[in-house]
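Write out this protein's structure.
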Amino acid sequence: MYAILKRAIDIVGSLVGIIIFFPVCFLFSLAMQIESPGSVFADTPKRIGKDGRLFHLYKLRSMIPNAHRLLHEDKRFRKLLQEYKKSSYKLHEDPRVTRVGKFIRKHSIDELPQFINILKGEMSLVGPRPYYQDELAEQQEKYPETKPLVDEVLKIKPGLTGEWQVSGRSEVNFDKRIKMDADYAKRQSIIYDIIILLKSPLAMITGKGAV
């Protein structure tokens, strides 16, 4: 019953989200094109979804074109890549981020296209963070005690928002973040989802912990 009700809420919520936030995404896409011409969506690798299935996550581009490839292949970003991996795959000062990108990342506007992923059934409104393959592999080497937690997290769909996103977001390191995601996976319920959804707008407005 929980799974059926959750999916129904995801479908309705994603449709409402697309209708309400399409003008916002359109306007910021135009602003991004003026500042940094290129693809509207971020050109990032696929994420890991439920049961380890890979999917393409829709996200507004907040960086210069080809930012992910440049980070991993351009020698100019070698030190930045090392810092990126050491800081749980988050950077507080990233020269690749544009001025428009900095604003939409702070207020999670870049995440809004994920309503499409939710409608397609690849994600839910509430769930764990959708991780990269290499991120999960390397973080589990760094924090070997998290492997059972990762297995728990991959039993459910990732979410547009979740417990760690409304409780510190990028200020939380991987070991603590994955534990919060695993705890959610174990105790998920409609009431718990509603509580997280009610907290999410404040996290977006304040931009607390965002990078």
